[in-house]
């Protein structure tokens, strides 16, 4: 498969999380505890040594809310509510500090997973505030929904990879037109 555009850090942590599930391949890295540990290790995030099913469910819900938020479609309001719930649950909030200008995020984390989610939320909010989040998109193909980084000059791309999903979309549209044309009028 053609490589799909990777986001630069720190956006990459968001992209990697969304793409732990690959719809086209019907594959999900976060169905087993070992998968969650591997994901957290790869991102340098803390993780419970033995994640529970509740941990896995929580991260998968968080991931799908992130996907829907970035998709900016009809699922976005519910996704925002879900993510706001995690903001409240983890107590994630900005923290001013003395010294060089800057704001960091803190939280009321009591578990490694809370810390990990706080860090991902902090990345999401920072990227939203500085505008860089607008280039992290979800592929417009409903059976793909891959998170990709839009490198096009005017940030107007719709597909994770034009030669893959864009071409599939064009083919479907072509077939639909052919079918419509074949209908007796
Ligand atoms: Zn795609």
From TrEMBL:
<protein>
    <submittedName>
        <fullName>CGNR zinc finger domain-containing protein</fullName>
    </submittedName>
</protein>
<dbReference type="InterPro" id="IPR023286">
    <property type="entry name" value="ABATE_dom_sf"/>
</dbReference>
<feature type="domain" description="Zinc finger CGNR">
    <location>
        <begin position="135"/>
        <end position="178"/>
    </location>
</feature>
<dbReference type="InterPro" id="IPR010852">
    <property type="entry name" value="ABATE"/>
</dbReference>
<dbReference type="InterPro" id="IPR021005">
    <property type="entry name" value="Znf_CGNR"/>
</dbReference>
<dbReference type="Pfam" id="PF07336">
    <property type="entry name" value="ABATE"/>
</dbReference>
<dbReference type="Pfam" id="PF11706">
    <property type="entry name" value="zf-CGNR"/>
</dbReference>
């Amino acid at each position: 498969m053609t490589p799909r555009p990777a986001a630069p850090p720190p956006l990459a942590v968001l992209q990697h999380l969304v793409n732990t599930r690959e719809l086209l391949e019907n594959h999900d890295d976060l169905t087993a505890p070992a998968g969650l540990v591997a994901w957290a290790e790869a991102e340098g995030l803390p993780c419970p040594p033995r994640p529970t099913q509740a941990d896995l469910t929580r991260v998968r819900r968080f991931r799908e809310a992130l996907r829907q938020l970035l998709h900016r479609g009809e699922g976005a309001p519910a996704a925002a509510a879900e993510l706001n719930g995690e903001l409240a649950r983890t107590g994630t909030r900005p923290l001013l500090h003395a010294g060089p200008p800057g704001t960091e995020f803190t939280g009321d984390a009591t578990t490694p997973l809370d810390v990990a989610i706080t860090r991902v939320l902090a990345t999401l909010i920072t990227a939203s505030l500085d505008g860089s989040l607008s280039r992290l998109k979800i592929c417009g193909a409903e059976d793909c929904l891959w998170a990709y980084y839009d490198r096009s000059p005017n940030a107007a791309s719709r597909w994770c990879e034009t030669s893959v999903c864009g071409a599939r979309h064009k083919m479907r549209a072509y077939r639909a037109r052919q079918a419509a044309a074949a209908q007796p009028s």
